[in-house]
Every structure is written in C-alpha cells, then in structure tokens.
Design goal:
Elements lengths: L6 E5 L2 H23 L2 E5 L4 H9 L16 E5 L1 E3 L9 H8 L12 E2 L13 H15 L12 E4 L24 E4 L9 E4 L1 H6 L2 E6 L5 H7 L9 H9 L3 E6 H4 L11
Parallel strand pairs: 1-10, 2-3, 2-6, 3-5, 6-9, 9-10
Antiparallel strand pairs: 4-8, 7-8
This protein binds 6-phosphogluconic acid.
Amino acid sequence: MATPPPKLFSFPDAEALAQQLRAYVLRNQNAALARHDTFRLAVSGGSLPATLAKALLAPSDGSPEDSPQFDKWDIFFADERAVPLDHEDSNYRLLKDELLSKIPAELGTPTVHTIDANHIQDDDPQELADLYQDELMRSFAAKDSVKLPVFDLILLGCGPDGHTCSLFPGHELLREKDAWVGAESNSPKPPPKRITLTLPVVTHAISIAFVATGAGKKEILRKIFDLEEGRSIPSALVNEGGGEKVSWFTDHPAVDGVSFPRRGSL
Ligand SMILES: O=C(O)[C@H](O)[C@@H](O)[C@H](O)[C@H](O)COP(=O)(O)O
C-alpha cells in the first residue's frame, strides 16, 4: 500500500502561518509530554528561528494546550556550522538571538544541545559530528541502545536548491544509512564545514515540518512535489521517507499556481 503523502498548508501571511505553527508545535509538545514527560525537538537555521519566535512568543490563551513548557524542552540542531557559538554564522547564536534570549523567565528555560565548541577548529568536521552523535546517544539512549533517535519534532527549512539540514543535492551524505550525524567539509553554501542530522534520523522523527515562504520558493516546491522531477532532491527524500508525518507550512506566494497531491486542513 502506498504511504500517504505529506500535508501542505498555505497561509495568506506570516501572522496566520505563525499562529498555526504555534498550534502545531504545541500539539506535538503536549503529545510528547504525555508520552515521556520531555519534548525533544531539532531546529534548523535560516528564517526558521525568527518564525518560531513569532509563533511561540505570542501571548497564550491561558489554556494548558496553548502553553509552551520550555523547562521540558530538549532542543537540538538539525544542522550546525563549524564556527564558534557566538559567530554570526552559528545556528545556535541565531536561535539564541531570535528565541532563547526572549523567552520570559516564567515560561521556563529549555535545555539546548550545542556542538562541542572545542572542536570547531578541526580541519575535518567528522569529530564534531561524532561528538554530536554521542550527545544524541546520551539524550536518547541513556538506558537502552537504540538504533535511531526518535525526535518528537524536527523543524526544517528548504533552500532554493531543495537542500534541507546540511544535506545538499547530489551529496554522498544522502546515502548514509548508519550514522545519526554526518559531517560536511565542502558545503556548496558557505560556511563550508558543517554537521547535519542524516536522512534516516530525520525521517524517523514522529513529526517533521518544513517552513518555506516567499515567491522565491515556488520553483523548488514545484520540483519537490513533482514525483518524477523531484526524486533526488533532499527535501523530496524527506517527503518520501516521512510520508504523512511531514507537514509543509508555506505562504500563498510560495505555492501560487503549484498543484500538490494533498492539501491539509488544520
Ligand atoms: O545552513 C544553511 O545553509 C541555511 O540555514 C539553510 O539550510 C536554510 O535553512 C535554508 O536555506 C532555508 O532558508 P530560509 O528559511 O531562509 O528560506
């Protein structure tokens, strides 16, 4: 039986998108807390941290369903650049500036899992990737040895070439089957040295969401959702592996005139 396809949501503006993204993230939070009293999520860089901040820092309606419980969040990075944590290219710094530093104390403080800053100068980012994998192992497999970590939620962006995390088109990392975290030494987009979650980890998550907005995304979205043309595009591989666990949060300019297999309703 064919796997049901990803869901696509399209909103008229950033406000409407942020409102529904908030509801989606908090639904995932509440389900995760009910399962294991912690919410483990991975986030990307790009415009995502700002959108997430818009969503999560909005006033709550006061109900338990609509309340972020940041004390119970374990935040990881879907990908990270091999730069100091206070560098302007650091995804950690971006998240900190956009979201973490603005969370009111009464909402709690998330635990944030950064890369090991002692290894950012290494010529080969493999050690950095291995250490981040160890960090995941400590967090996900404290007692049992698990084959793959199961994130409660992974929040992704999509580049104009269809890359997601630091998984770029045509790169051999797309074929990685065993490692949880991969190293990229020569990224086509600067900075060149990065680490990234691998495809098996991304598609193993309970929920996976892309946020892609603006007319500049239209052409790549058309290709990603074209089953023939999109086949080898990294974001399309997430769609294929994740199926109905994947949701796309877009705005009207990003999908104007593009047809999709399944439009969702929230
Ligand atoms: O490391 C990177 O190269 C960027 O972080 C990148 O992966 C980004 O997430 C996408 O290009 C989407 O960017 P936007 O969210 O800004 O569209």
